[in-house]
């Protein structure tokens, strides 16, 4: 499903998804065999497959998209606001002397890396073929076929060097400001979990992404803005994607659950906490997007949503 989605063959990917139903077990887990038991790896792999399909339906891709692939003629249209991959909406942050596709260290690019990997896998496939010709071991045939398939599959992946990633140009008519800060944790350093968030990754002033302006295409989302600002300032973003949207786990190595079970990242647009995923909140020019780290499920950064829900669910006197 992942490969079919990356290649733009959505109709085939949807058929494969339907066939996964016989591997589903009670409770929502999946098994490796039709009559097998629930397996965590199988469940995780299935989630990745459905995520790839969902992203393909929205015009995105889990591991990159084959540039020459065309979507199946099923009448579906991709929506621009669902760009889940940061590489789609980046601001250019090229340093002097570094241009897209031309790194400062020997000129090595993502294309070169793909060529090297593909050549090594292809050579291994040829070697298996030669060994089969001499030794007639049938086990070498599927090995050669697999290596050959991997050699070709490398070209479906979006492989780039750090210089290429950070120097990618983006832009568009939508101009917004972005900020990411974790100042709330500065007064809670006594409860930090070093195994999750080493103390040295927390900035002294709590600012991880300084407020900056980024340019985005029409239909861009709050997640696109975060990705563009993070690329602009060379900050790492850790996130997961699913059919329900994108969830930001960490920014600048400050991740969820580092300051207790109620800690993690929340975001606002123009001072308000949206009730949709960060990848579903479409932006307009002039919007101010802020990501703030909470240690108390949003209460310490101005979000009273959970308190209001709790009061509504409380029994009447």
Q: Could you explain the architecture of this structure?
A:
- It is a single chain.
- With 317 residues, the protein is of the alpha+beta class.
- The protein is 31% helix and 15% strand.
- The strands form two sheets. A four-stranded mixed beta sheet has the order 2-1-7-6, covered by helices on one side. It has a three-stranded antiparallel beta sheet with strand order 3-4-5.
- A hairpin with a 2-residue loop joins strand 4 (245-251) and strand 5 (254-255).
- The termini are far apart.
- The model is unreliable at 62-105 (pLDDT under 50).
Please write out the topology.
Layout: H1 2-6, H2 10-19, H3 40-57, H4 110-135, H5 140-153, H6 162-166, E1 174-181, E2 207-216, H7 222-232, E3 237-242, E4 245-251, E5 254-255, E6 264-269, E7 288-294, H8 305-313
Helix pairs in contact: 2-3, 4-5
SSE topology string: HHHHHHEEHEEEEEH
User: Mean of the pLDDT scores?
Assistant: 78
Structural class: alpha+beta
Which range best describes the helical content: under 10%, 10-25%, 25-40%, 40-55%, 55-70% or over 70%? 25-40%
CATH class of the largest domain: Mainly Beta
N/C terminus separation: 53 Å
List segments where confidence is low: pLDDT < 50 over at least 5 consecutive residues: 62-105
What is the compact description of this entry?
With 317 residues, this protein is an alpha+beta fold. It is built from 8 helices and 7 strands, in the order H-H-H-H-H-H-E-E-H-E-E-E-E-E-H.
List its traits.
317 residues; 3 domains; 4-stranded mixed β-sheet; 8 helices; 7 strands
